[in-house]
Amino acid sequence: MASILFLIVFACAVFYVSQHTLLNTSSTVTPHYAKLHSESSSTLAEDKSSNNIDQNIPEIYAKRLGILQAEAIRLKAITKQLANLTGFDLSQYVFDSDLGQGGIEQDGVALTDTEFNFNLTYLSDTFEQQLQQLEVMQIYAVTDDAIASTIPSRRPINTGWLSSHYGKRVDPFNGKMAFHHGIDFAGQEGDAIYAVADGLVSWTGNKSGYGKTIEIDHGNGYVTRYAHSKELLVKLGDRVSKDQEIALMGSTGRSTGPHVHFELLVAGHKVNPNKFIKN
Fold first, then answer.
1. pLDDT digit string, tens, across residues 31-71
2. 168 Cβ contact partners less than 8 Å away, ≥ 6 residues apart
3. Residue 268 and residue 160: Cα distance in Å, rounded?
């Protein structure tokens, strides 16, 4: 178990360093480049970019792109090693999606600043996806039932359907693009809503926009929120268990119909619940 946790911490550290490298490279070229190029010319002379990046792209940025690519491969290897140790099946996450590459060497087309920054953004997204996989495996590796039961790991409904995903969407009220910080599960008015993990009820009542709402503190930085209920079945300070019925589905607050708006907060930050709850 200690070796598994070490790998998780190490992988996250790799991600952290890589992200900071990205933040220092993703902006467009500025006058400061002249100084950076001068200071780095001796080092870069031994590490020239291949033909697909011409002199319009600063060599120092090309080198850092190469570093990010190497870190992406390294992070993927760590993820695979952790998966092997835990017996976790990565196939459902389409982990092995690399395709073979090759061809006859020939003069390449100059890479523009826009294309270069796109590559950096793509690598950043890759790191984020790998980190999410590590977080899921970290949960899977937990062996203490008392701890595992406090980690969100199910949907808040038994009947109904997913009606709105986490992320950008068209607001159903004003038709504008907006970020949706939770997942909506629709159903019939009065359908049961369940706690997704053991915890302590930390909020009950009407919340602006959310209607009748329950918040549960699960410990270890995890908090879940259940909104738009018709009726709340628990009160502030109650201890609840995973699978316990806590509310009845309704359409209170800013709502177009019966559903539960489900949010997950980790260390105070709203995150995508999809990587925690089971489908």
1. 333 343 444 444 444 444 444 444 555 676 777 677 777 77
2. 177, 178, 179, 180
3. 28
Question: In angstroms, rounded to a whole number, what is the distance separating the alpha carbons of residues 121 and 2?
Answer: 33
- What pLDDT sits at residue 206? 96
Distance CA 251, CA 210 (A): 9
**Weakly modelled stretches of the chain, pLDDT under 50:** 1-54, 99, 279
Work out the angle at residue 244's Cα, subtended by the Cα atoms of residues 243 and 250, and round it to the nearest 5 degrees: 100
Distance CA 194, CA 88 (A): 27
Cβ pair 232, 204 in contact under 8 A: yes
- For residue 275, what are its two tokens? 């990587």
Alpha carbon distance 266, 132 (integer Å): 13
Classify domain 161-275 at the CATH class level: mainly beta
Count of CB atoms within 10 A of residue 249's CB? Answer: 26
Answer whether 231's CB lies under 8 Å from 211's CB.
Answer: no
In contact, 182 and 254? CB cutoff 8 Å? no
Q: How much is the pLDDT for 148? A: 75
Query: What residues does each domain of the chain span?
Result: 2-101+109-141, 161-275
